[in-house]
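Provenance

Sequences were taken from public entries as deposited. Structures were produced by running a predictor on each sequence independently, with no templates supplied. The record for Putative aminomethyltransferase from Rosa chinensis is shown for reference.
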Amino acid sequence: MARVTCDCLLVNPWRLYSYHPHQSFAVPLVTLTQTKKQQKLTLFSSSKTRTRALPFDLSPPPIDHDLLDTVAATAGAKVSDDGIIETFDNDDQALDAVYNGVAVVDLSHFCRIRVSGEDRIQFLHNQSTANFECLDEGQGCDTVFVTPTARTIDIAHAWVMKNAVMLMVSPVSRSISEMLNKYIFFNDKVEIQDIAKQTCFFVLVGPKSNQLMEELNLGDLVGQPYGTHQHFSVNGMPVTVGVGNVISEKGFSLLMSPAAAGSVWKTILSQGATPMGSNAWEKLRILQGKPAPQKELTNEYNVLEAGLWNAISLSKGCYKGQETISRLITYDGVKQRLWGISLSAPAEPGSIITVGGKKVGKLTSCTSGRKESEYFGLGYIKRQNVSEGDTVMVGDAITGTVVEVPFLAGQRPPSRSSSS
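Predicted structure for Putative aminomethyltransferase:
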């Protein structure tokens, strides 16, 4: 198909292929075409075109261009010295899209780790909190990397593929690859690869994410369990699309070769998504209550205090941190928990939280709210001292109201009977 131009946009038409592990071809799903008056999706019959599948497990070919050139060309884009898009000069609009439309975020600066080898499932099963042995190809989960005493390092979003497990972790957690390599023993058939430079990573956030997926003829993923993912091909390059993203079990994630990323980015924007920069993403993280390394996830707090229940298996065998986690649950030993705090003024992370003049916790993150006069934070507070709706003091003179946040509200701790 020839490249088609319009008055304001140059589009590289791209075709999606559904990858079937037990077949030697990929079924074409959709291609994008554009005229001067309209843009539409044209469906193709699977019986007419058959192309060899490109499983994502293959390494992408050498890249001769930079996605940053494409994303930075988006209106309003401002790039940091580290090559991260900080803003598209539309932060309020992007946040509004999260609640009323759909936003697309380039998280290619996040770490991506490929774990392969015959022992990869058992290895990750032993090194993190999730039960990898119960997952099949095409499924996924969240899992937490912890210290032997269950102190938090980072939470990873994992996809179980045919020949590897993909881990998406925070940009400040590049040391996880080094940590995992230290636990590979002589006879272990495990290989750890940092594939951040070989891949790009986008997420879709907002209530109209499902509609956008339908428009891209990817509706089969809508309504599937969190972590479900499928492989496709765009311009002959591999793309994996998964349910949920690193901040919510709703929305979608796209992991792809940089050679396909430019076309994917342009197409998502052309379907009405609003681009979001890293500044607005960090604000959204705090508003949603997603804990982050070096802020809420540190050596000061354990995984249960961080409230990451959905990423913890209470039934699997021995793993790093299990003894501490089991003891905390058995003896109801979790003394503090992470809360959202609606603030009367901006406060510095690290500020002491008090009730009646008594220290009960510490603020870990702070941002402005959706309205100009609002401020919002995250902080750890002792369990016995507050409940939702209570008033606290942050620092010397800032009033806060304790509130629940969406990410933590979606976590499902065990009942007393189920954990006994």
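The mean pLDDT is 83.
The longest strand covers residues 358-368.
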